[in-house]
Amino acid sequence: MSRTPPHVPVVIVGAGPVGVTAALLLARRGIRTVLLERHRDVYPLPRAVAADDEVRRILQAAGVGEEFAAIARPANGLRLLDARHRVMAEFRRTGHGRHGYPQTSMFDQPELERLLREALARNPECELRGGAEVTCVTPDAAGPVRVTYRDADGEHQLWAEAVLGCDGANSLTRDAIGAVWEDLRFEERWTVVDVRTNADVRCWEGVDQVCDPHRPATFMRVGEDRYRWEFRLTDRDEPVRELVAPWLPPSYDGDFEIVRETQYTFKARIADRWCSGRVFLLGDAAHLSPPFIGQGLCSGLRDAYNLTWKLAHVLRRGGEEQLLDTYESERKPHARHVIRLAVAMGWTMTGGQDGAAPLRRRLLAAACRIPGLTELAGPDLSPPLTAGPLVRRGLRRGLAGTHCPQPWITAAGRRTRVDELLGDSFTILTATRPWPALNALAHALGIRAIPVPDLADDGTLTAWLRGGRAEAVLLRPDRVVMDVVPAGDRDFTDTATWAALLHTTRSPLPPRHTVEQSLLRSTTR
Predict the structure, then answer these.
(1) What are 170-196's pLDDT values in tens digits?
(2) Integer Cα distance of 57 and 103 in angstroms
(3) CB–CB of 438/508 below 8 Å?
(4) Rounded to the nearest 5°, which phi and psi values hold at 31?
(5) Which of 182, 380, 447, 460 matches a 20 to 30 Å C-alpha distance to 139?
(6) DSSP string, 143-202
(7) If 0-12 CB within 10 Å is exposed, 13-18 middle and 19+ buried, where does residue 243 land?
(8) How many CA atoms lie within 13 A of 125 on its CB side?
(9) Cβ pair 126, 27 in contact under 8 A
C-alpha cells in the first residue's frame, strides 16, 4: 500500500448510470473524478426501462442527449386494466413535456450505460477504474475522505475532497456514514421477464398495469421487438408462455426469446441520512422504490443533478459548506413523495391483502369514472422542491421550486434549446425588458438578466411567466426557480434576500451595501 495516497477532488463509488452521469456533470464544471467499479464491463441484462422528460434534460446536461434520443422510444403513458384487461383508466403522457422532451421514453439500460461509458472515455476529467472493489470509506469532518479499494494488483488508497456513494441497494458507503433504512411499508416478490419476439403483441405503446388482486402484472413495449412483463409471485408456478398468453396471438408458436427472467423483491425504503461531511448517498444507496411508475433510476439521476452543481460551487468557487446541506433537504422529501406514489400504484394494482382490499378496488373503479380526473393526475410525477435556503416559497411565488420550461429558441441567429443558452450559471429571466433597478441588481450579483422576448421562443416561456404571475424569476444552474419577482412589482428591491441566497453558492460576492448602492445609482440617473 502506498504511504502517500493520491489525492483527487471526487471519488465516485459505483459506475452505474447514476455514478457515470454524476461524473459527466462534474466534468462539465471542471471537476476531476475517479470512479471505482467492481465490475469491468457494463452489466449486459436489462433493468430500468423508463425515463421522463426531466431525466432526458439531465442527460442533455451530461452531454449525451442526442445519443440517448437515438436509443429511446416515446411511450403513450399508463393504463390501468382490470383482471379481464378492460381499461379502467388512462393517464396519457404524450407529446413533449415542459423539459422539451417526450414525457415518457422507453429504453434498454445496457444501451444507456454503454453510451454513458463512451462519453466518460472521451472526457479527460473522468477516470474509470474497473475491477476495483471498495472495501472502506472513512469520513473525516476535518479533512479529506479516505477511500480504500482492492483490485488485481492489491490494496490501494485515495484521498478525496468528496465521495459520492452510487453503489446501489447494498451500499458500503451507506454503512460507512452510519445510515439505516426507513421502511415505507411495501415489500412484494415479483418475477420480471424480458422477451424478444416478432409476434404481433397486443399493446398500446405505453405501460399497462393489470389491477388483478390474484395476479397483478405490468406490461410494456421497450423496443422494436423487445417487451417486458412483471408478475407478482404466487404459490402457483406458471410457465412464462402461460403468463404472457393474453398479450400474444392465439396459439402463437413463433419466435419467442426470453432475454432475462429473474425474481425481485420490490421494496419501498429511504435512508435516514444521506450524507456525513462530504460523503453523499445517491440513487439506490439512498432510496428504493417499487417500479410501478418507472421512477427508480429517474430519482437517482435527479440526485446527481441536484448535488453536482452545488459540489462544484463549493470545490471550485469557494461556496459555503452549508450549500451541500441542501442536497438532502431538497432531494429526500422529493424522493419520499415519488416512492409513495409508486407504493400507491402498487396498492391500486393489488388492492392490498387485508379485509378492506375489495372496498379499495371498488373506490378506484369509481374514481376512474370521474370526468377529467385522469387528465389531472397524468402530466407530471415530479413535485416542486420544498422551501429552503435555495428555494424561496411563499405568497405570490407560485413558480418557486419548479423547473423553468425548455422550449427551442432562436438566439443570435441560431436555433437551440434554452439550457444551452443559459449555461451552468445563475440567471434572471424577465417577462419584459429588464428595468434599471433589476439590471443593476443583476450586475451587482454578477449574473445575467435575460428578457424572454429576446429569445424568440414559441411563447412557452412568456405563457409560463404569465401563468405564474411573475415579472421575473431567479434561476439556479439546475433550472429550478430560486425566487420570483411578482407581476407588477417593478419596485422590487429585496436585495438582501437575493444576495443571501447567492452568498451560499459562491465567494466572493459583493457586500450588501455595494448591491444597494448600485440600485440607488440606477434609480437616480
Answers:
(1) 999 999 999 999 999 999 999 999 999
(2) 11
(3) no
(4) -100, 125
(5) 182
(6) SPEEEEEEETTEEEEEEEEEEEE---TT-HHHHHTT--EEEEEEEEEEEEEEEE--S---
(7) middle
(8) 16
(9) yes
Q: What is the CA 176 to chain-centroid distance, rounded?
A: 24
Query: How far does CA 65 lie from the centroid of its chain?
Result: 14
C-alpha cell, 88: 379502467
Q: Which three cell numbers stand for residue 398?
A: 407560485
pLDDT tens, residue by residue, 447-495: 999 999 988 888 999 999 999 999 999 999 999 999 999 988 877 656 6
**Dist. CA 302–CA 48, nearest whole Å:** 15
3-state secondary structure of 479: coil
Q: Provide the whole-model pTM.
A: 0.92
Radius of gyration of the chain (CA): 24
Pairing of strands 7-13, 33-37: parallel
Torsion of CA 502, 505, 509, 513, to 10 degrees: 30
Q: Find the length of the chain.
A: 525
The SS3 assignment for 429 reads strand
- What is the distance between the alpha carbons of residues 17 and 303, in angstroms, rounded to a whole number? 12
First to last CA, the chain: 67
Output the CA angle 361-366-368, nearest 5 degrees.
95
